[in-house]
Amino acid sequence: MIRGKVIRLAALGMIAGACVCAGASKKSHSSAKPSPKLGHVLYIGDSITHGYGAPSYRWALHKIFVDNGIEYDEIGVEVGNNKAAGNAAFLIEQGTTYLGVPFRNLHAAMSSQRAYETSGRNHEKSQRLGGTDIFDWLKLPQADKTDRQLDEMPDTCFILLGTNDTLSDYGGKGGIAKNISEVSKALTSGKNGDIPVIMDALKKANPKVKVVLLSIPAWGATRSNNTAADYKSVLQTLNKQYASLAKKKKAVYVDLNEGLVDKTCEETPGRAVASFVNRGDQLHPTLQGDLIMAGLVARTMGYAGRSAGLPRKASAKFDQSASMLFEGARSKEGVTLDGEKLVMGGGGKLEVTWPTGSDVSKGFSAQAKVALGNGSKGGWQNTESLVLTVGNGEHTARLVFKEGAICWGKDTVLYPIDMSTNKEAVRVTWVKGNPDEHLNPGFYVWLGDMCIGEGLPDVAPALNGMVIENVSSEEITVESAALDGASSAPAPVGLVKEEKIYGE
Q1: pTM of the entire structure?
Q2: CA 274, 275, 281, 285 torsion: positive or negative?
Q3: Over the stretch 312-357, which tens digit does the pLDDT of each residue have?
Q4: Is-contact 242 27, C-beta < 8 A?
Q5: How far apart are CA 39 and CA 73, in angstroms?
Q6: Nearest to 132 by CA among 112, 111, 146, 114
Q7: Which of 11, 57, 123, 144 is deepest in the core (most CB within 10 A)?
Q8: Distance between CA 366 and CA 413 in Å, rounded?
Q9: Residue-wise pLDDT tens digits, 171-209
Q10: pLDDT computed for residue 286 by the predictor
Q11: Are residues 267 and 408 in contact, defined by beta-carbon separation less than 8 angstroms?
Q12: 229 exposed, middle or buried (CB, 10 Å; 0-12, 13-18, 19+)?
């Protein structure tokens, strides 16, 4: 058995009032309030959990926990993560630190792992993890092997299983849609379905265990199971059964596809955003996919998002509010002010320079809250609607808002979203970073307090100030806008145990 303990720094402060963010999926739910201590944590899964071509959502989640002072102790029967050709740089070694806290890289997952192998349903076909299963790991009476056993029982367990069973085992028999009833029976039905068996075994080993069940994530365009019916069968049938099962078992269910599915892909609804999955296999998450998955897991569980080692700061405490920006703008063509709202006619543009004497060489932040378009009504518009550009003359960010996505630069999707119903502010901050501690330098972007962009590169041309431009022909109201001469993360919505500030 392999295990490791994460040691946290002494708490510097406490922010009370934890709750699930308003932006969390309506399909996701939590049965208990978040705790600052997760105890012994076990990750169960396949290559998406083990990591393939990117470190996996576990590494991204580790950084969220570190930023928020959440204590946990990783345990596992397997260590490390796989690497895809050309992606060796993304291989995270055991003990790699983020802001001084080591990532032990422990789990119970392996490439091609099936749910039936983990549940022990079909020993004859079990090939991964030495043929061991959940009963062996937990040393339950049904155990028949002594290797790969845990010394401690998990207090929190994350489960992400079913992708291989669904896409490979059943999808290869004429398509997922054709076999969805058989898939559902094997994975979720009654007491003998693989996922219920795994969850019951965890409860038997530790009646107080907190189980977090993740949805089967969407895949990309080149998989053989690529019809609209296949996507629908997984997203609207099988994952709904996962959600119902989690509710029945008083577990947490996380709808990963809330942030993975390309909302504008009308020919095959349910397909993942292309840049969120590996180009080669169109299945395993990229670094961006991992970031979004981890953010949704933390948000659903009631934890705050990343702070990137920065102090948290409400936009109300920024140097300049919308009215101040409007008053001091060097140009405000086609823009009027309504309280703290910027009403921008088609082609309207607000241009702002930094106040005289401002030193923004070490960092700066900008924030805007906007809803635009009409979603799927009349078809999605994939063109730019609103553009926010901000820089200090050396580093420049360019956020693009479309009807169905928030993008970096022209069309690099950071988060797929129906902007017509958006109620959260978007913040962009430049971070000096520290590569030695795996705090990536570059721009960070948040939707609410969930980080949706990490270490993003500069976008040319250079700008010294901020420009908000309505590039559509329709009127757009920016509910709030703010600019600040310092780098900061948003005020937290979820639980934060300690405020850890990195840097000077």
Answers
A1: 0.93
A2: negative
A3: 999 999 999 999 999 999 999 999 999 999 999 999 999 999 998 8
A4: no
A5: 6
A6: 146
A7: 57
A8: 19
A9: 988 899 999 999 999 999 989 999 999 999 999 999 999
A10: 94
A11: no
A12: middle
Residue 34, CA distances (Å) to 28, 83, 298, 497 in order: 14, 33, 10, 11
Angstrom distance (rounded) from CA 130 to CA 119: 14
> Is the distance from CB of 418 to CB of 375 less than 8 angstroms?
yes
| CA 316/CA 229 separation, integer angstroms | 47
Dihedral pair phi/psi, residue 25, rounded to 5°: -60, 140
| Bridge partner residues of 365 (DSSP) | 429, 484
Best CA proximity match to 487, nearest among 343, 319, 373: 319
Q: How far apart are CA 15 and CA 65, in angstroms?
A: 15
**Domain span(s) for CATH 2.60.120.200 in the chain:** 315-484
Class of domain 2-301: alpha beta
List residues bridging with 388 in a β-sheet: 399, 468
Query: Given the structure tokens 């979820």, which residue do they identify?
Result: 494
Pairing of strands 210-214, 156-160: parallel
Tokens of 472: 């559509």
Q: DSSP character for 425? A: E
Alpha carbons 28 and 33: distance in angstroms, whole number: 14
Architecture of the 315-484 domain: Sandwich (2.60)
Going by C-alpha positions, the residue among 297, 309, 301, 367 that lies closest to residue 502 is: 309
Mean per-residue pLDDT of the chain: 90
Mean pLDDT of 204-228: 95
CB 179 within 8 A of CB 139: no
Q: Which residues of 274-313 are buried (b: 16+ CB within 10 A; e: fewer)?
A: ebbbbeeebbbbbbbbbbbbbbbbbbbbbbbbbbbbbebb
Q: What share of the chain is helix, strand, coil (3-state, %, to 5)?
A: 25, 30, 45
156 vs 6: CA distance, rounded Å = 15
181 token code pair: 């009833």
Report yes or no: 469 and 346 within 8 Å, Cβ to Cβ.
Answer: no
The pLDDT, as a whole number, for residue 17 is 30
Q: In the chain, list all ranges with CATH 3.40.50.1110.
A: 2-301
- How many angstroms separate the CA atoms of 382 and 487, rounded? 31
Let me know the angle formed at the C-alpha of 110 by 104 and 114, rounded to the nearest 5 degrees: 140
